[in-house]
Structures are given as structure tokens and as C-alpha cells.
Amino acid sequence: xxxxxxxxxxxxxxxxxxxxxxxxxxxxxxxxxxxxxxxxxxxxxxxxxxxxxxxxxxxxxxxxxxxxxxxxxxxxxxxxxxxxxxxxxxxxxxxxxxxxxxxxxxxxxxxxxxxxxxxxxxxxxxxxxxxxxxxxxxxxxxxxxxxxxxxxxxxxxxxxxxxxxxxxxxxxxxxxxxxxxxxxxxxxxxxxxxxxxxxxxxxxxxxxxxxxxxxxxxxxxxxxxxxxxxxxxxxxxxxxxxxxxxxxxxxxxxxxxxxxxxxxxxxxxxxxxxxxxxxxxxxxxxxxxxxxxxxxxxxxxxxxxxxxxxxxxxxxxxxxxxxxxxxxxxxxxxxxxxxxxxxxxxxxxxxxxxxxxxxxxxxxxxxxxxxxxxxxxxxxxxxxxxxxxxxxxxxxxxxxxxxxxxxxxxxxxxxxxxxxxxxxxxxxxxxxxxxxxxxxxxxxxxxxxxxxxxxxxxxxxxxxxxxxxxxxxxxxxxxxxxxxx
Amino acid sequence: xxxxxxxxxxxxxxxxxxxxxxxxxxxxxxxxxxxxxxxxxxxxxxxxxxxxxxxxxxxxxxxxxxxxxxxxxxxxxxxxxxxxxxxxxxxxxxxxxxxxxxxxxxxxxxxxxxxxxxxxxxxxxxxxxxxxxxxxxxxxxxxxxxxxxxxxxxxxxxxxxxxxxxxxxxxxxxxxxxxxxxxxxxxxxxxxxxxxxxxxxxxxxxxxxxxxxxxxxxxxxxxxxxxxxx
Lengths: 485, 230
What we know:
The complex is a heterodimer of chains A (485) and B (230).
Chain A: H1 16-24, H2 27-33, H3 37-49, H4 54-70, H5 72-85, E1 89-93, H6 96-109, E2 114-117, H7 121-125, H8 128-134, E3 138-141, H9 144-151, H10 168-178, H11 191-208, E4 211-214, E5 218-220, E6 225-230, H12 234-241, E7 244-250, E8 254-255, H13 258-272, E9 280-284, E10 298-304, H14 308-311, H15 327-330, H16 333-338, H17 349-360, H18 362-365, H19 367-370, H20 377-381, H21 388-401, H22 407-420, H23 423-441, E11 446-447, H24 454-457, E12 462-463, H25 470-481
Parallel strand pairs in A: 1-10, 2-3, 2-4, 4-7, 5-8, 7-10
Antiparallel strand pairs in A: 5-6, 6-9, 11-12
Chain B: H1 8-19, H2 29-40, H3 54-67, E1 71-75, H4 81-91, E2 97-100, H5 104-107, E3 118-121, E4 131-135, E5 138-140, E6 145-149, H6 157-160, E7 164-170, E8 174-175, H7 178-189, E9 197-201, E10 206-207, E11 215-216, E12 223-229
Parallel strand pairs in B: 1-12, 2-3, 2-4, 4-7, 5-8, 7-12
Antiparallel strand pairs in B: 5-6, 6-9, 10-11
């Protein structure tokens, strides 16, 4: 049975344009992505309709997370004290490599051989699997979607549906190729049969695991708990059957009380999968108690910074409110066209377009904030009202300041700015363009190709202007409508 | 800029304070705000669907659970529970063996009234236990969500390892909002105490990770049956 060596994710965000081209020409990917509008998007819409207070909860979600961020140091201290009182061992990691080493050491100290792992985007961010495998450990992803990308030696293409890019047929082929301990000609006619096959494999892994690693959607200062949210129950078997439970999480996940988690729970599943709530929401606090018949003997929580405390003092602070629901990517026309892998880093879609330049630098991540029409869908569905287009614009400004744009882009922007700041010249130029293009194109109604406009005309014709400019029409209409003149 | 010997913890928290422009020294006015927020644990908005009259809450609770592919069985008195379990097992062609913890409310049931049922106690055994039985501490009707508390009374593996999970809920513990259920859990556990796990369960295990199609029983139970008592 397969559990391959996963290469640590090498960021390819700098190659975004090439990645996007490949994605657009991938028929399997396009078929997999075509289910988004009728799937996750439609499901969110109906879940929202069934909760009339949904928009009010978005405002509450924003305010709750803002309060936590404004007092982040204090809530982290209180969380740590409460968790420790319940027997947790809390570790702090400034960087990805610190976090990897802390977790590797815990595994070494208990002489671990097999590690099961629930879904955790922070673990992807720090490249945990690769590091543990280099230490000689076997690491098995237990979330079905994560397991699929693991056996394919890929990375998640979506933060809540890791294998969104795969079709049913690809999964069947993968299972036949990788599950070599099973008869070659076994029937796998539908997802149910494939899920049953994966379930049987995973059962033994849960039982044999020495260490179970999960992420956390929230940390609660009041109770010292970490919270996970799943539909499969894999995160629970991962943490309750292993000898040691390690939670890998990050500083911005802390909230004050159970009452502060409640509105976030109401928002999370509805925004993510369109469920009212995910099947399993689990608050974990410490290792097994003396009288408990099950549960881990050790409970570690690794709290990662990895640039977040810097982001807190930066222009993109609002992004730290993110509760990782994936709604922004589900509703993004760019994500819907190219999928998650093209973004070239752990967090795809609009949230990735803001996080990637912060984590990898503007030079590497600069194409991502550019890959947006600023249609605003992402901000309008974000459960904690992160102004994603505004934050992308800030990265575009930083890109311009740092001079990463091409000569052509810079020259073009400069020419545009020069014109836009001089209304007379602008009107003159617009009239000239409208007249010439109108004269040239009137006969055929539009242009199939134009110099400097290939990006537009490759996919659609440019209609020929009808004669006068908008400014002229506006002025004429104003005159006609103003009775006193 | 940091003196040697400072820990990663101190450096992270110092950088957070720097980013928040927290003035050094003196009393931090935020301390009182944070202490009060935790001590008061005030509620935010509670949705209307969580504030219905009790009879409507009960109907809504059942309808959400059933929509989530769970079963809901009404039982008038605790004396009738063993027979209700036996009937469920028969109807679903399940072996007449139940794994349960040491919950006194379950121990006090008149088990001889269902002589076919064999009881096993302790944590779930993945090889032998097809059906397990737990007692919920509370439930929230706003989404059909059970609250379970781990421990010897109701070991957490009972909720995740079997094919079929049976859960008893006192109708009196069925409330509207998550916040109401959290309050019942707080009362049950005592101030400031948390179990190893507090589990919110709203249906049997499922996944939609293959082709976006929902399949039941990804890793945990394929079936969840809730016996609402009273």
C-alpha cells in the first residue's frame, strides 16, 4: 500500500502565469472545477437563506476576530495558562522550521514509527510531512481528500476540499494503482465503494499510530481547548486512538470564550460547505484523564507565528481574521477557471493572493494579487468581512513601489496616469480614439484583432465605437434634461 | 534586539505587542477588558430558530437530525429504553450486543426487560463492537446537535469507532442555542473544568471528497440513532 514520499511544497507562485495557462488547458481539471457553482456555491446560498440573521453574524464574526487580534498577546497567555492547567504541553514556534523540529522531537521522544494526521493547512504551510518522513517516520493523512493528494504526491488544491481538482474516475484509477494489496479486478463503481476501501485501510492506521496530529480551527482562552471541525470523524480517531496527540496551529486562532466561538461556528460550515454545522465539532483539552478508558497519554499544542505577528502590524492585518472556510475561492471566477494549484502555494484563491505575498515576499507572490478583476465576490461572501480586493490592491501598490513590474506595464501605467490627470488631453484622446476606431470598424461592426489588445480580442471581438464618447453623450444629455438652461 | 536567553514564546508575544503598539510598562488597560470578557462570557446574537417554544424546538431538532441522515426515536420513560434499543437492533438487523461506559443513568436501566441484549463495558473495541451506546449531556435544536462529554461514563471512542452509535438524550436537556447547551455542559462539569473532549455531533460520519458526492461512513459511524427520553 502506498504512502509515498511527498516533496516539501516548493512555491511556484512566481510562475503563476504559466501555471494558469496549463490549468486552463487541462480538461480533467476543468471538468472537476465545473461542479463548483452547483455544488459548494449553491449549498452556501441555501444555508444562508435558512438563517435570516446570517449577515448580522458576518458583522459579529468580524468584530469578534478584531477584538481577539487587538488583544492577541493577552488571550494567548490566558489560553496557555488554562491549557497547561489541564495537562497540555504548549510549544511556541517562531518559524516553520522551528515548528517542524518541535514536532519531530516529540515524535523522537516517544519513539514513534507511524503518524496519523488530520487535515491541517498550517502543517502544509510548514511542510511537515516531508520533514517527518525524512526522519524515518511513516505519515498517513486521514482526511480522505488529503489522503488522495498524498498518494498522488500532490498538494491540496483547496483549503477545505483538498482533492477538488480530481474526478471520480481519477480517484478510481489511483486506488487501483496504489492499493496493490487488493485484487486488481475488484469492482469500484462509485464513490461509496472507494470510500469503503479507504475506510478499511485507514482503520488499521488509526489503531497502529503512535502519534496523531491535528490542526485547530480555534483555541479557546476561557477553557484552554483546541477545536477541530470535520465531517468524516477522522480528526477524532486520529487524536483519540494514538498515544500522543499533537495539535499544530497558529497564533491568530485564539478566541476568548465558548460564546465567542458560537457565532464563528454558525458562520464556518455555512460558508464552507453550506451545511448548518459540520458533523463533528470537537473541543479537546489536555491528555486523557486518569480515569479515562481512552484518549492520548500526551497532548501537545504547537503555536506557530511564521510572520503573523508582523502581519498584525501591517496593512494586511485584516487577513488574520480568516477562519479558513474557502468561500472566497469557491466564489472567485479566477479560482473557478484555474483551480488551486496554479496559485503555487498553500493558500489558493483570494485569501492566497493576500497571504502569499506576505509569507513569500512581494517578488515571488506578486502575480497573485494581480490575478483578480476586483469583482468583489470574495469580500461579499467572507464570513468575517475581510476586504480582500482592498488588501490585494495594497500588494499591487507595494509591487509598483518595489519596481517589480515589467517595463511595458510601468510605461503603460505612467502614460495612463499622465492622461488621466489632464482632463482636456484625456477627452481629446478619447474622441480621437473613438473617431478612428469608429471609422475603421464601422463597416464590420467590430474588430477581431487589434494591436496592443490581443488579450481582449483573443477571446472576443471589440465592438467598434458608435461615434461620440461617453463624456460627449453625458454633456448632451445633461443639457437636454436641464429645463432651466 | 532581544537579549539572549529569551524564549520563542517571549519573542512572539513581544512582537505581537510591538505590532499592536502596546506601550511598555505600567498597567495595560486591556487586561481588565480581557478578564471581564472571559469572566462574563457574554452571548452575541442568538438566532430566532434557537428561541422557539419547547415543542417546536423538539420538532426542529428531530427534523435537522433526520435531514442529516440520523434516526430519532421518541421514548416516554427510561424503563422503555432497553426494549427500544432491542427493537432498533432487530429492525436494522444488528447483533444484540451493546458497548457502553459506566454512565449511572444507563447502568440504572431495567436491562432484564430486554434479555436478548448483551452489554459490554469500557472503551470501544474496533474489532468486535458494531453498536455502541452513549448518554448526551445536552443538545442544541438550532442545528440538531448533540453534546457529549468524554470520560469513563461515556468513552469518546464509542462515538467514533462503531458502525452504529446510539445516543440517549433527556428531553429536558434539549435546548435551543449552542450557548444554552454550553451552559448545561458547564453546569454538568463544574466551573472551569473541561473533559478531555467535548463533542458536538450532528449526524453520522460522511465525506464528499470524491467527485463532490456525499457518502456516509467515511471513518466514523454510518448510522446515528438518537433516543429522546421524556
